[in-house]
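New to this. Help decode the following:
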Amino acid sequence: MNRLNPQCRTNQQAAKLLGTVEQTLLEHNMIDRVNRILLGVSGGPDSTALLHMLVELSSRYDLSLAVAHLNHNLRPQAARREAAWVASAASRLGLPFFTATRDVERYRHDQRLSPEEAARQVRYEFLVRAARQQGYQRIAVGHQADDNAELVLMYLLRGSGSLGLAGIPPVRENLIIRPLIRVTRQQILAYLSAHNLAYCTDHTNFDNSLTRNRVRNNLLPHLKQAYNPGIVQTLNRLAEIMRTEQDWTATLIDSVYRQVCTFSGPDRIQISIAQLLPEHVAVQRRILRQAIAAVKGDLRRISYGHIQDALALIASGPQYGSIDLPDKIRLQKIDTIAYIIKESTWLRRSPTDNRHRRPVLFNYVIPEPESDDLEIEVKEAGFRLMLQSVHPDSISEIRKAGQWVAFFDKDALKFPLVLRNYQPGDRFVPLGMTGRKKLKKYFIDQKVPREQRTRCPVLLSDDTVLWVVGHRTSETAKWQPSTRRVLKITCDLLQR
């Protein structure tokens, strides 16, 4: 019987491992029509193995490689040593080297993020910028199978849905590639040992005060020893199944999403509540998540609870209301429309901030239209008014009008009209009633949030409130069957 000596066995294992990486590159089209790849190298075992494996494969696929390293400045002395080590490794291999230093702690504070999330965001921002500036088509990072298993397990413990259980994708946005995603940590360490390759050790990986480290150092080894020796492969298989089903479901949701979302801009999406609510609750959740992701850029920090709160507001909340979501995202319900908006400032302010925050003020004088149509943009509040003269016979259109369209007897109006903010002391006679009512009391009854009241536009004729825009018209100058000239006024949000 022929027995392989340990060295031969090690060489075979290394060749098999390289074959797995090569198969991953090809199966996921990571290098399809690509020859310039930027490698994100921290100096740890995973990125060091990635660096040497891709160098070994580069001649076979005519790859032009470069190395990028970010100093997070969280462990100053150790970080400088790691940066020098990665620079030396790139030099020995004859590869271009790009580096930068970022103050992650300040970024974390400014953006209100966890240390891990802040470091991740800053790192990818650096890698993407470096790749674009230097003309690299892909960015390779060192995530491997154990990383994926740990993440899936963490999401499972949090009660995540299919998107979380899908784990780390092999390719993200046709830019970030993960050639080691099928390789285990044990295989990587064996490869480094077989090739006598040194690497840096980040001692924060042993800090079990962090959830990720407790999963890595305690929970996953326990599951492997006591329940399933192949737990890493099992969790990766689960992730692959969930990822393919997630992709399939996304194709089904897209057509519904396009119907339900009646307007989509870079920082605002408009959802028809009437079209959303008949859908199955699973579809409703996915549409909301997709809309939030489109405005926010991702779904990080958006939990199941956030989605449930949003659905509750849309389905059974007050006619006018809003909830604040993480990272400056606001969901606002106005009558039959739900808006998902990316605000420019943080939504959760301290009492001091709110006390000194000045409302946006506006006051527009509207002359009598010389032609049939007149358009007024109120940029301070993000909407426009459109005034049109319509025929009195448009009775069916009048009866179907919602809160954002109003009809008046043009002959009963006194021009110019005035459009301004709500002011304390404003009163009106709501349509269908006989007594005057304070707008403040009306807002309280309608559960309009306090911060929205000062931004609410009010239309007046001769100092008399005609219309609390987006809410209710008054008895003053109302359309009647005897009306000879009808003025139709429509309020639309500006596309920002």
Notes: The two ends are 76 Å apart (CA to CA). Residues 266-353 form a domain with the Uridine Diphospho-n-acetylenolpyruvylglucosamine Reductase; domain 3 fold (CATH 3.30.465.60). Residues 87 and 492 are 56 Å apart (CA to CA). The chain has three domains: 11-235, 266-353, 363-493.
